[in-house]
Amino acid sequence: MDDNTGPSRRPTLGDRRKERIDALATAGTVVDEPGKSLLRSAWERLRRDPVFLVGAAITLVFVVLAIISPWIAPWDVTANPLIDKVRPQSNPVPGPEPGHLLGADDRGRDLFSRLLVGSRQTLVVGVFATLLGLLGGITLGALAGAIGGFVDTVVMRIVDVMLSFPALLLAFTIASLAREPSQWTLIIAIATTQVPIFARLLRGSMLAQRSSDHVLAARSLGVRPRAIVFRHMLPNAMGPVIVQATLSLATAIIEAAALSFLGLGNPDQRQPEWGQMLGLAQRYISEAPHLAFYPAGCIIVVALGFTLMGESLREALDPKSRR
Amino acid sequence: MTQTSDAPDVLVEVTDLEVYFPIKSGIIFDRTVGHVRAVDGVDLSIRRGETYGLVGESGCGKSTLGKAILNLEPPTAGSVVFDGTDIASLKGEDLRHARKRFQMVFQDPMSSLDPRQTVESLLLEGLRAHGLDTDTDATRARLRELMSDVGLPVAALSKYPHEFSGGQRQRIGIARALSVGPDLIVADEPVSALDVSIQAQVINLLQDLQDKLGLTYLVVAHDLAVVRHISDRIGVMYLGALVEESGGAELYDVPLHPYTRALMSAVPVPDPQVEDTREQILLTGDLPSPANPPSGCRFHTRCPWKQETLCDTERPQLRVVEVSGASDSHRVACHFAEKIASGEIQRHEVEATITTPGFGGPDAGPTAPPEAYIGV
Amino acid sequence: MTQATQHSSRPGAGSSEPLLSVRDLRVTFQRQGEEEFHAVDGVSFDVRPGQTVGLVGESGCGKSVTSLAIMGLLPGRGNRVSGSAIFDGEDLLTLSPSAMRDRRGSEIAMIFQDPLSSLNPVISIGRQVTEVMERHQGLSRKQATPKAADLLERVGIPDPKARLLNYPHQLSGGMRQRALIAMALACNPRLLIADEPTTALDVTIQAQILALLKELVVDTGTALVMITHDLGVVAGLCDEVNVLYGGKVVERGGRHGLFRDPRHPYTVGLLNSIPRLDAARGDKLSPVPGSVADNLPWTAACAFAPRCSNAIDPCTAETPQWEGDQVVGFRCFNPMGGTR
Lengths: 323, 376, 340
Ligand SMILES: Nc1ncnc2c1ncn2[C@@H]1O[C@H](COP(=O)(O)OP(=O)(O)OP(=O)(O)O)[C@@H](O)[C@H]1O
Ligand SMILES: Nc1ncnc2c1ncn2[C@@H]1O[C@H](COP(=O)(O)OP(=O)(O)OP(=O)(O)O)[C@@H](O)[C@H]1O
Ligand code: SF4
Ligand code: SF4
Ligand SMILES: [Mg+2]
Ligand SMILES: [Mg+2]
Hints:
The complex is a heterotrimer of chains A (323), B (376) and C (340).
Chain A: H1 13-27, H2 38-47, H3 50-72, H4 111-147, H5 149-163, H6 167-177, H7 183-210, H8 213-221, H9 225-261, H10 274-281, H11 289-317
Helix pairs in contact in A: 1-7, 1-9, 2-11, 3-4, 3-11, 4-5, 4-7, 4-9, 5-7, 6-7, 7-9, 8-9, 9-10, 9-11, 10-11
Chain B: E1 10-25, E2 31-47, E3 51-55, H1 62-69, E4 77-82, E5 85-86, H2 92-98, E6 102-105, H3 119-129, H4 136-149, H5 166-179, E7 184-188, H6 196-213, E8 216-221, H7 224-230, E9 233-238, E10 241-247, H8 248-253, H9 258-266, H10 272-277, E11 319-320, E12 331-332, H11 337-342
Parallel strand pairs in B: 3-8, 3-9, 6-7, 7-8
Antiparallel strand pairs in B: 1-2, 1-4, 4-5, 9-10, 10-12, 11-12
Helix pairs in contact in B: 3-5, 4-5, 5-6
Chain C: E1 20-29, E2 37-47, E3 52-56, H1 63-71, E4 79-87, E5 90-91, H2 97-103, E6 108-111, H3 115-118, H4 125-137, H5 141-154, H6 160-163, H7 173-185, E7 191-195, H8 203-220, E8 223-228, H9 231-237, E9 240-245, E10 248-254, H10 255-260, H11 265-273, E11 323-324, E12 329-330
Parallel strand pairs in C: 3-8, 3-9, 6-7, 7-8
Antiparallel strand pairs in C: 1-2, 1-4, 4-5, 9-10, 10-12, 11-12
Helix pairs in contact in C: 4-5, 5-7
The complex binds adenosine-5'-triphosphate (2 copies), iron/sulfur cluster (2 copies) and magnesium ion (2 copies).
GO molecular function, one term (chain B): ATP hydrolysis activity
GO biological process, one term (chain B): peptide transport
Keywords (chain B): ATP-binding, Nucleotide-binding, Transport
């Protein structure tokens, strides 16, 4: 009789990602203490969780700034008020001076304003990529979870194959297939990497719902299958998907920055974007490291904000990770 | 089907029912490597208006049998004839329409109610599914009636399940089952998640409803005392099959199967006098895995009366035995029931054996190592 | 007012000094934005060596919190503990965490309801048992291993040497609970607290575990605090019974006395609501009406009053006081029976 414990082979990247997704998928179905759904008690925990609060605060500041940035930015991002100070040989990047908090970039454009307005593109790419990924993932996941059988097998095989590629590599490949890079190729590329995650998650979550007692109860009552899927399974399966969406925003932002850095983003260099700014800063990395430091810092802080929020959500939902 | 003139009015006739769950394994393509024989050849009949109780240890297949009878878990083989139609072979819309006549009450009053629906919409759902909600006023009246039947205030209709206590939630579950006006209700551990004082309320409610509406019950429970209290007839299950079946009082007075005896002696009685004096038959070891049941009599690995012959080679069938005190509706699946009853065969020690390694407990099914500790 | 009945069998009364003496134990939870909540509200009881004391009551009455408070295992924040729990001359509630850790596992051990979550899933059973011995008795792993095998054998695990190598998920529920008991016994504790040790198990397995516990108490003289909601288990195992309701002990008595002549209406109600295997079918049960959600606060009433069939005027105006002593007694203005 086989008596060995522990995995017989080392888990691959795909395995680990799958496990993580599956753990989250089942979390939403667990009922915690009587009288409260898990989601509800998770929320009560979150309200007092400093990690969550910090993450939420960062996120909130970022979103608000991104929305109002065109109005509060001291300078027009395409104007180059400091162009006169730019000396390609001796002073390629003008430093801070009154009215220009962080100085200017190599074209004499106000760095602070560009950083501020750059948050918009980051947010747009992050949000749209995640929304698109969500849409694709939900469609596939719901199909697999609701129909099951052959559809399920086919969808899940494709999803698993996609999951076993590193996300950035996949996005890079897709983005570089486009004839000319634009913000939209970026969004589509990143969304594609999100689709399998959401699909597997929703499918797992739906399956967990399908075997739950209240769905069984609806079946035994003779409720029509379509009503069971739309009234009982989908709404209850969405909790983990929403948590994952928060986490995905963080990865989307980092991936967007990475792809822009590699020159696969918006070709219009006049519009600021953090990753693209980081890419341009490379040239002056020894003379003006601050040029790279600021956008990099922004990316890290914002991604951290979403990650902290998402991770604490996930933890609050996952009964195994607390006690 | 047997049809004798003085046959009792049978509502459900279960014949040779089997439910096997495939055990799958494989890295890319799942292969079936074995079966969990959750229900492995069950015959039973439930008469109209009676309460049939099904007892047994965790994992013996009680819930699966209950679900299979309602075709919520499609049977692998066998038939379930409900009032003349074979439910086991129904599919799709036919099955959905037929569900109006048989309903289920679940063990966990929290997880069996959709947390996102109000009580009203939970109750309306069944009415709607069977086209019973045509007239708004009549529907409202029906909802009120249901609430008063299960002893809840009408105001409860607009609340959500989590706003109720466990006992009240179980009442909602019962109201939902009643909403479509069924003949048969299968109650799977209807009180085991409830506190003692609340248990009694729900048991009484079930009995009152039966008297009022002429319901037929199949009550599945692991608590022999509860089953004895509410059942007219009791079936004792062990590892997927019935080992004994008889009227409630008779089962208690004349238990014939060694397993029934052990089960009966293990139930604690809230009376120190009884506890001090009664004889306990302690079983050794655990329930064997239903994926790999013992040969012959399923109970032979733990049976204190096991004999050298027959027990481990031939599977005993349910049969009526000639024992004083046992009526002819008392059936038992033991080769030596008569000799055990007469005392000709004596109890002996049993060496405990461990069950299959990897046995993950009754609800776990085939288990993998705990996933929580595989770091991500 | 009436004197508490002197039950004929006064369990262990005066037979020896109490090993554990809990006095006026109070545990108050304070959740943000919510009112203070007294989960345990002035509980007192004694446990003598070789004695089994039961704490019974319904879900949420404070049984587990009582035991966790005694063991110093309550989560650090959000609760207040007062009163005393004198074990062997020392107040466990005032011991430093490290001193308490030394007592736990060696002199006082605890068994929980869910054996799977109390065992570490990635460490073999054998290691978990030997670790306890290494820590508290200073044995080496080599010395501890054969002892661990003996322990597993003693708690009725077949083929103990092989089982030492197994992981918790490879054992059935009953076997896990046995392994947990073996761990608890590793250092011959003087006090064992068992919190619903059989609730997750089947009756036939429950009978095995209860028999094992009974045998241990008799063989080793260990004192046992048995927490359960099952009056049947109490009837078979406990010398003394404490019935809890809403965080207070509402009745206490010897095993025979309490069941023969229950005084508190809640005890009576509980006994009447249990279907009994040896009773005829058909008799209606008489359940206690309502649920714990109806409770009144103890501060100015009897918490049980809204559900009580015996309630009289003072019940909703004053807190009933304890009548009796550390061996028998009840907390009620209008008790049942009690003429004998
Ligand atoms: N969907 C399933 N897939 C695989 N195995 C299953 C499934 N459902 C049940 N089983 C297995 O079938 C056996 C019988 O399960 P069942 O739930 O019917 O037991 P039960 O008698 O109701 O136990 P309990 O008292 O714990 O509810 C168990 O071994 C269980 O692991
Ligand atoms: N950490 C905690 N924070 C807040 N309240 C708590 C905490 N632990 C327990 N409680 C509350 O204290 C009360 C008593 O809980 P306890 O766990 O002692 O009940 P119990 O008698 O053991 O019940 P059960 O039979 O369900 O185990 C309950 O109302 C519970 O909600
Ligand atoms: S057939 Fe044999 S093993 Fe089975 S119950 Fe009867 S005596 Fe025991
Ligand atoms: S004090 Fe009053 S309400 Fe409380 S139990 Fe006694 S009689 Fe009932
Ligand atoms: Mg079951
Ligand atoms: Mg408890």
